Please model this.
Amino acid sequence: MKEAKTKISKFFIIFLLPLILKSSTIIEGRVGSETGEFLEGANVFLEGTLDGASSDRDGNFRFTTEETGKHNLQVRMIGYGAFRKEVFLEGKTIKIEARLKEETLKGEGVIVRASSFSTGEESGVTLTPLEVVMTPGAAADICWAIKSFPGVQQVEEGAGLFVRGGEVTETKFLLDGANVYHPYRYESPTGGFFGTFSPFLLKGTYFSSGGFGAEYGNALSGIMSMESLDLPSERVISLGVGLANLSAGGAVPLRDNLGINFSGNQSNTKPLFDFNNVEDDFTEYPFSYDLNLNLAWSYSEKGRAKIFFFKEKDNVGVSLQDPTWGGNYYGTETSDLYNLLIDHALSDNTFFKFNLSRTDFEKETEITAGGEDIIDLNETDEINQAKFLLEKKTFMFLKFGGSLEQRKSYFEGFVPSEEDTLDPSVPSNYYDREYMSYISSAFLEETSFFPYNLSLTSGIRFDRDSKSAKNALDPRFSLSWNAADEITLSFAAGIFHQFYQPWRYDTFYGNPELDPMEARHYIISGTWENDAGMIRLEGYYKDYEKLMKENDTLNYVSSGFGYAKGVDFFVKKSSEKIEGRIAYSYLESKREWQDYPGLFPPDFDITHNFSAILNFTPVTFFQLGAKYMYATGKPFTPVGGDFRSARLPSYWMLDLSASYLYSFFDNNLTVFYFAVNNVTNRNNILGYHNGDINEPIESSYGRLYYFGVSFQM
Amino acid sequence: MKRILLLLLITLTIGVRAEEKATVDSHILTIKALQQEAVSNGDVEKLKEISTKLERLSTFGDKEWLVNYYLALNNYRISTIAYDDKEISEKYIESAKEAVQKSIESKDDFADSHALLSSILGIEIGFKPQLGMINGMKIGREIEKAKKLDPENPRVYLIDGTGKLYTPPMFGGGIDKAIGLYEKAAELFAKEKDKGIYPDWGKDEVYVFLGNAYKEKEDDSTAALFYKKALDVNPDYGWAKILLEEMAKPDSSEQ
Model:
């Protein structure tokens, strides 16, 4: 009997006690967004029960549950992706930190397609600052991140955006609608090494690789449109320190309808190169700083105004090693941009935008050899611009806009008498010229929607350049068909013109009769897209005319021509923990321009361009990233060989990155990051001195380790 | 003693299971009543609380499709009541769309879900006029499917009527078509009985929409009659009260 009693007691303890005396567990913690903002009103609960709580103003929550054992905790909030975590309930307090990922409103992709020049917009990619930062190997640079999308060719180790067989200047940059003429830092003929604007100054970036609408002019190939931050909703201070950078910034709401965003960044590459023991040729390490002030004011329910100021300065010195001569390069540039934007809703469906902007740019370039100046040039550029846009969205869309731009350029100094030739034996010319030109533009665009999910956008654009007294008229259209819920097919065609910089029209050094360059785009595109991912296939043909060709008597004439054709393929797939994208571009581009003796592939004819990016988030606070990119080598003319008959070895690189998020105290978000660029230490060849394969120009970017921390509160 | 304990254990276990099984149904019944009350009062905060509860209930693994339907309906209600706050309203309509699509995914033959989806797509156009054509086609498809599935469902005609009311005649809409559909809905509502855990909302609403249609026709006296009729069906119906009060104002005809 005693034994039976004992058994019953054991039985009682094991099976019945948990039912009768349920132990209670406290679950508490905080809910925040990925950007560090704490979220109010999130629904935190145990799956399969009603036990839960809503987060308070500071994102905190706390609740008690009688449940025991293994359970799933879920956090849900409208506008954010759900968070799930397995918890084991055993009476001990459980602490949870949940970061929710903001969701773009579903259907937005559809709008992007239907709202304007469909194929152009379809070719577009919208990047958030976070996506830029999370692109491995992109050094938190927007242009570098964009280079991992299809349609952009890897031509140089820098930020330069060469789009679909177009030259680097054929991609136009805009910030809040204002033209940006100096979008790169450490400017070079192939763009520059970095983009001018840090992703943290921006709300988003839109990139189009062709077929864009009549709204965008004076660009032959691509559009990179950036939008600065809006009115801040709460006070944020951020600090960052990395091997090559120092940054501080913040956002302060001054009133409900008035706020300010500000930042300062300094980039000094010396510690980065020293730490990695890189043998380099810098006589002055690349150094830059920038300051930004952005005042946002919602002056009424219908309108907002934004004043944006940006200043950037950079300098670099390199020793130049040519087989026949040695010398030094030094360059410094400053760029100031002021922009006033007014965005006003005239009615529920009529919108008006107005821009007033000014850019001041100064650049000093010096190349010396044996104590002699080969180049010693000071350049200033002043651009003033006024622009408006009127939009009406009803059963059809109408867009009408115009702009007037004044550009004053001044050059003073010595340059080699033969363009693009650096050789102490070539005599220098003294140059002292001032140019001024006006570009006036207007456009009209209309989108109609038809049965069977068809939409047609047609537009026309007019530009006039006062310096050359030439006009350009660009008709463009795009047809888009939502063949099924997730499938869109489209076709776009149009004419695109681009004027030269004012100095090309110089009567002595250039030719005032130059016509604007012209490209005709024909694009066919298919996209399959749903919540889980996207697949896009595009084919295009671009016909180039009126390109600049060297001429013995007139310096240059507009008789150059060429073409580019290719296929771009893009896949993006995301799941809870893994996000990946693959971009592949096939391109064939040929030109008869500059000093080419016939139709030949230019530097930017990169046949195959491939990049794959994988971001893996095993736990919410930790992320690993990898990027592999491959590009066919550039064409070049070998010693004793035919013109542009050989190619450099292929360019490829593998980059890895890791980041860890941590919160030291309330309202704090700290990100630790670590990156290894060029993991395999691939020695990429960037060119050959005078086409001699025994004299390779090697990349100075071997394996590079980089780390830092960013702190936000 | 041992037997007694075993019996106690079995009873307790069964009791717990039975309680869990009953939970979803009884919760739905409670929520239905609370939802109706919150809609009558235009109480967004209450509706948000209900959404919270429904989100939790949707993880119980029972009648998920129905819970998701009510979640969609609830978020749709929030979106329409808070329509002036574009940001909130748009977020809730997107969330409603997601929930109703989930409901349809698990149960494709429930007419109310298809009708609700068509109404949600209509609201979406309000935020993104450019979706007019794309959503317009889907709205037609969904409502036709709903009619096919349940030709006697009054909510399907109510929603179809509202869609027609806001569609220009050139795209197949118009006030008279809307009135015809509302009248059909009213007839069906008169026959509809309490449907337990299944949706049976709209008995009062249909008269408000009839009133609105007549208001559009500038027939204020008929409109007022219908608003009053809505109050006869549901004396607490806040929207009908507001509309009647507005009409009673001396300058209402100019508004």
Summary: Confidence is low (pLDDT under 50) at residues 5-21 of chain B. Chain B has eleven helices and no strands. The radius of gyration of chain B is 21 Å.
